[in-house]
Each structure stands twice: as C-alpha cells, then as structure tokens.
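Side project, low priority. Logging it here so it doesn't get lost.
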Amino acid sequence: MKRFILPIAFVSFLFIATSSAAQGVKLAIHAGANMGKLDGKSFKDEYQLGYHVGIAPEIMFSSKWGIQPEVMFSQTNTTTSTEFDDLYKVSINELKEVKLNYLSIPLMLSYRPFSFFTLQAGPQFSILMNKQNTLLENGGDAFTKGDFSMVGGAQINILKLRVYGRYGIGLSNINDIDNRDNWKSQSIQLGVGIAL
C-alpha cells in the first residue's frame, strides 16, 4: 500500500492543477539557499548552508486564498559532534561532514491579503534520496527514510518575480539507526522564483 501513495498523490496533484485552471494557475520555478541543521546530541548545533531548486504551481481559488503544492530538490548539510563517535563507535574522521539530499513535497496554504504579499503555511514530506537507489525505490522507502515537517513563511510578489523566506521544523525522528538519539531537522529557506 505504501508504494502506491506517492503515485496517487502525484495524480491527485495533477487533477487539482488542471481542474483549477479557471480560477488562476501559474507555474513558478524556485531556487535559493537552505540554512539547515539537525537537532540531537550527535550533531553540532549550528546552521549550515545548502540549496534548493523546484517547481511550484500557484493555484488561487479566490483573490486571497489558494494552495501551492511544490516539488523541490533540497540539500541539508551538517557536521557530526564527538557525541556521535561515543554513541555509535564510529570514528568522527570517517563521518564528519554529512550531506542529506531530499526530494521535498510541501503543500502550502496561501493567504494573500495584498496582491504583492502572500503568507504561507503547511506540511512538507521529504524523501531521503540515496545514491544507491532509484527514484522509485526511494519512494517505496518514503515512510522509513522520510522527514515530515511543518513549514511557514512569507512571499513578496512583484509582477512575475517571487522573493520568499520560510522556516521549517521537523516533526519526525529521522534517526533510523536506533533510539539512543532523537534527530529532528530545522531549516530556514531564502529564495527567488519566477512565475511563467
């Protein structure tokens, strides 16, 4: 059942996008910087720079309300602490810099009090992309290697230009080694987009 959830979500997304065309749909391309970190004693308590790129249909149901489902590739960088070595008996030199590449799928509720300003909030599910697996194999592992979070932020709309900032906080423990340390993500995203 789990392997069918991602394709069903994608088909539902396409249905919503095409059925909402009359209300106003714009496709935007986004790119920007991630400042991310992992909470937990295994990692240094500091934000590190990464990046994100993606596409985002802007579906407005009225002049003020809409949704913005997105698909984006996102990178989070972090550094292990000496606690990681103590807990997992791995040399810190072997695993010091960690890069986590995710396929992120946020579903943002948009409220536009003014045409040039949008408030956004919603859930985000991120699938950890392993180099050893194909995209479909990663989708099948989404519920064991995924990160569920809540995201909120604001966007400035200047003609076709979009400038946005967001904060995301992970709600799930992404440690799939054991339960000795709880790992949760935090991220700050700053980016720009262009509506096509």
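Brief comment: The longest strand covers residues 97-114.
Revisit when time allows.
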